[in-house]
Hints:
- There is one protein chain.
- With 297 residues, the protein is mostly helical.
- Helices cover 74% and strands 0% of the residues.
- The protein has one domain (2-296).
- 31% of the residues are buried.
Amino acid sequence: MGKFFRRYLDELATGVFLLLVMVITILDPPVFATRGGQLLARWALSSAAVLVVVIWIAARASSGARSALHFVLQWGIILVWVVGYVSLKLLHAGVITTWLGILPLDHWMMAADDLLFGKTPYLWLAQWGFDKEHFLQVMSGFYALYPFTPPLLLGWFWFRREVAQFQLVRRALIISFSCGYTCYLLLPVSGPLSLVNASTPNFLESTRAYSFLADNYRYAYDCFPSLHTANPWLMVWLSRGKLPAWLMAALAVAACGITLSTIALDVHYGVDDLAGLVWVFLIAPLAQATLPREAAS
C-alpha cells in the first residue's frame, strides 16, 4: 500500500481535488464578475473534457493514441494544479475561512515587515526610484511568467527523457500547490494593496489582463506564503546539477525576477517572500521522501 501511494500520489491528489471541485461547483455554482470570465471558464473546461474523452476512445484502438493519452495524463496533472488556483475563488473558499472564524492577517504582516525591514519593501524600492513605468512593465512581465515556468521546466525534462527528474519536480510542485492553497484558507492575507486607500489603481491593477483575471479568478487571501517566490526557487533548488549552465542561469534569473516583481508591484509583503523561501526547504525533502526509492535517488 505504501509503494502504491508513493507511486500514484500525484494522480490520487489530483483526482480528489477535481472531485471536490466538481461536487462543490454543482452544489454551489460559481459566480463570475463578467460574462467574459464565465465564457472563458466554460470554454477551457469543455475543451479539456472533449480532448480527454476523444483521446481515451482512440486509445482503445491505437497504440499511438495510447501514447497521446499517457502524455495528456502526465501533463494534465500539473496543469490542473497550476490552473487550480482559480478554484479557490470559484469555490467561494473564503466562506471556509470565515466559518473557521479566522480574520485577515494583513495588519500583522505589515507589522512584521516594519519590524524586519523598517517598512514594507515596496516602499524601499519606490524610495530608490524603482517605481517608474518602464521598470514596472518589466516586472509585470516577470510576474506573468510565473505560471509558465513549471510547464517549461518539466517540458525540458520530459523531452530529454529524464523521467525521475520530471517526477521529482512535478511531485514537489503538486505538494507545494496543494499545501499552499490550504495555507491561503487558514492564513488569510490579501497583500499590501488591500491596505492602500489609493484613488487610482497602480500599474499592475491598471492593466486589462490583470484586472480581468483579478475580477473573475483571483482569490482574496492568496499571499502567505508567496508561491510566486516558493515555486520558482523550488524548481531551481531541485534542478541544480541537472540542467546545462545556460538553462540553469535562465531559471535563476527568472526566479529572481519573479520574486522581485512581487515586491515591486506591491503584491506581497516581504515576510510573504521570506516564507516562500523557507517553503522551498520544507517541500523539497517532503517530495523526495514521498517518491518511490528508485525515482527519489
